[in-house]
Structures are given as structure tokens and as C-alpha cells.
Amino acid sequence: MDYDILILGGGIIGCSIAYELSKYNLNIALIEKDYDIADDLSFINTAIIYDGAECSNDLMSSLENMGNSLIEEVATKFNVPFKRIGSIRIAQTDVAVDKLYKMYNRAKRRGIKDIHLIDEEHIKEVEPNLNIPVKKALYSQNTAVISPYDLALAYAEVAADNGVIFRLEEDVVDIKKLSKGFRVTTSKNKFTCKVVVNTIPGEQYNLNPTNEEETKVDKKLYYLLVDDSFKECNDTLVINEREESNGFVFQTPTLSLGTLVAVKSDVALSYEELIKTSNSILPNLSKRDINYMFSDEFNVDSMLIDESEISKGYINVTGDHYGEVTIAPALSQILCESLVNNLKCTLKRDFIDKRREYFRFRELSDEQKNELIKIDDRYGKVVCLCNTITEGEIVDAIRRPLGARTVEGIKRRTGATFGNCHGSYCIDKVINILAREMDKKLTDIVEDSKNSNLLVSRIKEFDEV
Ligand SMILES: Cc1cc2nc3c(=O)[nH]c(=O)nc-3n(C[C@H](O)[C@H](O)[C@H](O)COP(=O)(O)OP(=O)(O)OC[C@H]3O[C@@H](n4cnc5c(N)ncnc54)[C@H](O)[C@@H]3O)c2cc1C
């Protein structure tokens, strides 16, 4: 056998499973079709860590609640930005108040702690910025925000340091059951393995395809990224149900830049309608306060974790869930436990549960900055002026385990090119550093994937752009 375990798909679920399994004496590889891991975790993910109170499905709720407790430990251990911000779900009508009571009672029945029903006069104590009429609110102290890409990267880096092989740019095209184990065919190779953990979304490469669509897409979620100059945003996640349209609107602080407003709607909304809906939480928000707008599918709580063939060595994790980042630590621990029990393998003695150190220059004190520059003067050269990202950080992002190989990889790892100038000042500098560090031609540097080259050709033979 080439491997004991092959993990298919390098999203947050695949990477967290790789990390959990890397604690054991197993020969593991993860296969990912893209240039980088966790491609789905775009720079602006809502990044909310739920606590299971909002979830209608009991199993998903308990995974969320378990994930909510575990994730803080993981974030602290691996230096992943994480903050408990709390959430306030507000009710402005009697029908909405009724709904809140039901949600509160369900959360209590599920044993979720630190959830409170509060009246209007107490809301200001929790969220002084909230400036709208409210009859009742459900306040959860558990809700948090995280940097989800950084979490996936941390899991992957530690797994790689502990021996998991990441096979990037390999597309899984077939999985076959053999008399012993499996054969997985990719666009580049054929591998045999004892166990397959398949996290590729959809049915395309499923060993047992069904005709049923497990994921129910519940219409669209529209996002507005509010500029930092708008000073009336709440520090807490604020959710307002919209009974009239079977949707909701929420506003959440992010750990990267600005505040996100999200509107879920069954019908298409114009930009003006989005702003108007957002005003139900942020009354003075206007078009000029918005930096970006984008939309995505909102997936309701249905996810399939199929362990029925675990004794034959096949686990399938499929479906999409709006809280998959939240459940990742819990799901991966549970799956890992079942797998290692089946394989009867032992813990590694030399497992290193530590992520290699890195520095975010802009968060250091002046004294720390000077010390760092003394050790490596590349930390003294600011490449991205908008976000104060130094050359030292970019070089580290390239040289780390699973290092960045694309401009998008640099952006996700460091924040360079993601400022108000959208990279117009620093993108050429980032391309130069990537080409130098990877010993490639400038014209070979890609944005995020094959054939996404940023420079078409040379017009003059300069060494730098
Ligand atoms: C807009 C948005 C906001 C969200 N906000 C939150 C939030 O606030 N809180 C929260 O907890 N969750 C949130 N989520 C959910 C969460 O981000 C996603 O559900 C999660 O990232 C999915 O992870 P995954 O590992 O299951 O799948 P994916 O990330 O899709 O990973 C699967 C991987 O498989 C790879 N792959 C596909 N086909 C092949 C193939 N043939 N061969 C090899 N590799 C292949 C893909 O490239 C991909 O990297 C949000 C999701 C979206 C879309």
C-alpha cells in the first residue's frame, strides 16, 4: 500500500482531519486539486463560531457546541486570531419574541450554557451602539469570530510538520474498492491505500453516489463590507429575523478589516434594497460606507457524515453547512477516534503539537519591531503600505511548510494587496519577491491557479518590474 490513509480534499474539514490523524503512527497523504489548501475559505468568510443555539438540527447543534468549546484551545495553541464577541438576536414584534422564547428553551434543553433572554433596558449594557427599537433579545456569550483560513492553514502546517504529505494540484478522478483497500486515481498518479476519507463536496467522486441532493441551498446570502470609517457598527454579532421575507439580516465584526453585514433573502435584492434592509440594524448606513459587495449560497443545516463503511475503510463527509468551520474541530476529533480504533494504531511519540512561529509586524510594539528588524532587516521593509505588511512576513509565508506560491496565497497568509488600494501599490513587489524566492521568471507568477499569470510578457529585459 502507498498510504495507510488518503484524505481527499484540502478544505477546513480535510485539514483538521489531517491534523488529528497526524498524531498517530500512520502514513497519510492529503490530495487537493488546487494550488493551495482551503481555497473555499475566501478572505472574507463570515467567520462566525456558532454555539448550536440557532441550529434546528440536534446533531449539528451538538457538533457546533462542541466545536465552539474546542476551537478556542486550538486557536490559542496555534496563534490563530480568535475573539469571543457574543451575539444578540433581536425581536421587534410579538411573533419574533415567541420565536426567541422557543429558541431559548431549545438551547436550554440542549444544555447550552451562557444564553440569556434580555429586555430592551439591558441590551444597552451588552451592546451600547445598538440604536433600534427592540422588544426582547437572545444574548449568547459564546459566539466568536475567527480567521478561518488561518485556522485551516495552522491545521495543515502542523500536520505537514508531523509527516502528512500534501499533494496539491492533483485532481481526484476515480476511487475504486480493491479486495484489500482502495485505489485512488488522480490527474497525475494512482495510489493504493487502506482507508479513504473523502471530503470532496458533491457526489462526483463518491464511492456510493446517490441521486439525492443532500445539501439544501436556502437562497442567497448577500454581503456588504462596511468601511472602518463608519463608526456606528456594533461590537457584537447582531441578528434581526425578517419575518416578512423568511430571511434575516446580521452584522458582525471581522478579525480582518471592517464589519460585515449579511442579508439572507428568498428573492433577488437590489443594492438599494440591501442598504435599506441593513438599516434595520444600522439605521444610518449608506452606500458611501460600503467597500465591497458580494453574494454566496446560504446552506441550511444538512450535512452527511457517512461512517457506515468505516469497517471497510471508507468515510464520506459531504454536504455544506453554514457552520462547517465551527464544527471542524469536533468532527475531526470524532472521526479520528473511530478511524484509529478501527486501524488499531498507536500514538506518535515524537508528535509536535506546535505551529512554527510567525510575526504580524503591525501588531508588535515598537520595541518588538526593532528587535525583529535587528534579527532580519527584511522586517524593516514595508511592502504593503495599506496593511503594513513587511517583506519579512512575505518571505516567511513562502518558506513555511505549505508555503504560498501565488499572489492570492500571499494575500491570504499576510493580508498584503488587500488594502484600500487593492494592491495597486504593492502587487508588483509581491510578484518580484515570489519570483526571487521560488527562482521563477516574473512572467511565471500566477494569481491563484494554473494559467492565471499576472504578467503576459516582457516588453524590455529589466530584472525587476
Ligand atoms: C460565504 C460563506 C460564509 C461562511 N461563513 C461561515 C461562518 O461564519 N462560520 C462557519 O462555521 N462556517 C461558515 N461557512 C462554511 C464553511 O466556510 C464551508 O462550509 C467550509 O469551508 C467547507 O469546508 P470543506 O472542507 O467541507 O469543503 P471545501 O472547503 O469545499 O473543501 C473541499 C476541497 O476539496 C477540493 N476538491 C474538490 N474536488 C476535488 C477533486 N476532484 N480532487 C481533489 N480535490 C478536490 C476543493 O478544491 C476544496 O479545497 C461559510 C461558507 C460560505 C460559502
From TrEMBL:
Residue intervals of the BFD-like [2Fe-2S]-binding domain = 382-435
One matching Pfam family is DAO
Sorted alphabetically, which InterPro entries does this protein's record hold?
BFD-like_2Fe2S-bd_dom, BFD-like_2Fe2S-bd_dom_sf, FAD-dep_OxRdtase, FAD/NAD-bd_sf, G3P_Oxidase/Oxidoreductase
Q: Which CDD domains match?
A: GlpA-like_Fer2_BFD-like
The record's SUPFAM superfamilies line, in alphabetical order, gives: FAD/NAD(P)-binding domain
Q: Which residues form the FAD dependent oxidoreductase domain?
A: 4-337
Gene3D superfamilies given in the database record = BFD-like [2Fe-2S]-binding domain (1.10.10.1100), D-Amino Acid Oxidase, subunit A, domain 2 (3.30.9.10), FAD/NAD(P)-binding domain (3.50.50.60)
Q: What is this protein called?
A: FAD-dependent oxidoreductase
**Species of origin:** Clostridium paridis
